[in-house]
Amino acid sequence: MFVHPDAAEVRAVAASLGIRLSTEECELYRGLLVAQLQALDDFVQSRAYREVAPPVTFECREPGHRPHDSEDPFNAWTWKCWIEGADEGLLAGRTVSFKDHISVAGIPLTFGSFAMDGFIPDFDASVVTRVLAAGGTITGKNVMNGFVGGFGFDGERGDYGIPLNPHDPTRVPGGSSSGSAVAVAAGEVDIAFGGDQGGSIRMPAAWCGILGLKPTFGLISHFGIGFGYEHTIDFTGPMARNVEDLAVALEAVAGTDGLDPRQGRDVPERLPVLGTLDRGVDGVRVGVLDEGFIDVDPDVERCVQDAIACLEAEGAVVSRISIPEHIAAPRAANALMAEGSLAVLNSGLFGALHKTYYPSSLIAAVNRLWAHDLDLFRPRAKFGYVLAEFSRRNFRGRVYAKAQNLRPTFIGAYDRALHRVDVLVMPTSPTIAPVRGQPSSYLDGVRADIVGRNSFAKNTKPFNYTGHPALAVPCGRSDGLPVSMQLVGRSFDDGLLLQVARAYERAVGWTVLSQ
């Protein structure tokens, strides 16, 4: 059903679009609108044709439950369940969880917001379908900060509480895939899939002492996963305690699915990585990125340099390399994010203009939230939307256009460097996990949330913009807290990053909670 607009409402809606209508025009429009809205209502209500959704596999599913405190000591879970996949496959015997912006049919989907309470999707994201087909057992959904997560790296905001860093509960776990990293680091799940719009897999992986992969753009389908800021910088990827689990997860889910319109012709049908995992690093050219070490804590730099020395001892050919564009890349990404987030808000969570399946019930639920409850969002998100609107009004789309048009320039800068070396290395985060913030007042808290900790993402955000694969690897400790190095490679050379990480893992024999 729809509400019949009166003339005043027609005039107000038109004015909001910059259209001025006379009194006579308003009456004319109103009559025509009612007729057209009736036709649209007939279309929506009609049962003559059935919307064909992607099939839900392994339909024998228990509803699961919201865990009690005793089941969830680190507050890593929004929901616990037990969904068994195929009897055999790459992930057989392994448990898997998902950040709560990933759809699992029959299991609540909250996007980290109480406003979505009660919504249960009727379809699986592609990563869920492939995990089950590969024999994985799904054990639940993980806490995230901010609606859809794309609003910060600290892991300190969210309606479902704050996950605790297993290494020190007074420190932030990183975000927005905070619960995913915490659950993996605490040994509560083997593999978790997170989301990354600027470092939201790699930052919590770094601060929780685990591995986290932001794959090549398009390599893992984003179908059935909520977008944060901007579709062209959004990724999903696995997190794990060891390289083998990470590689198995990647090989199980990577490749085209025909449902994610962002996947171009360059995306392979599958990506075998296990066959090369143990080749070592003899002769692999490792480039130490000068710009990646600017304003890095001395202990962090020491740990990363020690890891580089270890790779060199294993046979890697190490050299220093400079990419000046690395310093400017976050600013270009930020320019893209502002208006991109507003475009997502205006077009709906899954966008428009693509030939794919649109989950109508989920789109409607999110649109209701966005239409009435934006005040429930954290300050950074609200400020970002306001900034984007002023940017659009003042610059008429030039900011967004320039940020998109400059992307090949930055991609080319990294590609030229990756022609001289095989892998780039730098710290994932310039610091260890910071102490949780304690604002002195409400406005101080608002300001702190808006300003955020963007400096922590200066080495992660560039590769959301360029699409290169980037892997966070634990490489030591400072004051008892994990330090992480980031490996970056050529597009679709994700397997080489895992190969290098595996060589390092074997050389030092690290374990997540005892290194």
Fraction in beta strands: 5-15%
| Quaternary organization | single chain
Uncertain segments are none
Shape: globular
Number of helices in the DSSP assignment: 15
First and last CA, distance = 61 Å
What Rg, in angstroms, do the CA atoms define? 23 Å
Strand order of the largest sheet: 1-3-2-4-6-5-10-11-9-7-8
Q: What profile does the largest beta sheet have? A: 11 strands, mixed
Mean residue pLDDT: 92
Number of E-type strands: 11
Q: Helix and strand string, N-terminal first?
A: HHEEHEHEHEEHEHEHHHHHEHHEEH
State the helicity in percent bands: 25-40%
Helix-and-strand structural type: alpha/beta
What report would you give on this structure?
This protein is of the alpha/beta class and 515 residues long. The protein is globular, with a radius of gyration of 23 Å. It is 37% helix and 13% strand. The longest helix is centred in the first third of the chain and has 23 residues. The chain is built from 15 helices and eleven strands. The model has no long low-confidence stretch (mean pLDDT 92). Helix 3 links the parallel strand 2 and strand 3. An eleven-stranded mixed beta sheet has the order 1-3-2-4-6-5-10-11-9-7-8, with helices on both faces.
Main attributes?
15 helices, 515 residues, single chain, eleven-stranded mixed β-sheet, globular, alpha/beta, 11 strands
Compact description:
The chain is built from 15 helices and 11 strands. The chain is of the alpha/beta class and 515 residues long. Helix 3 (126-133) links the parallel strand 2 and strand 3 (137-142).
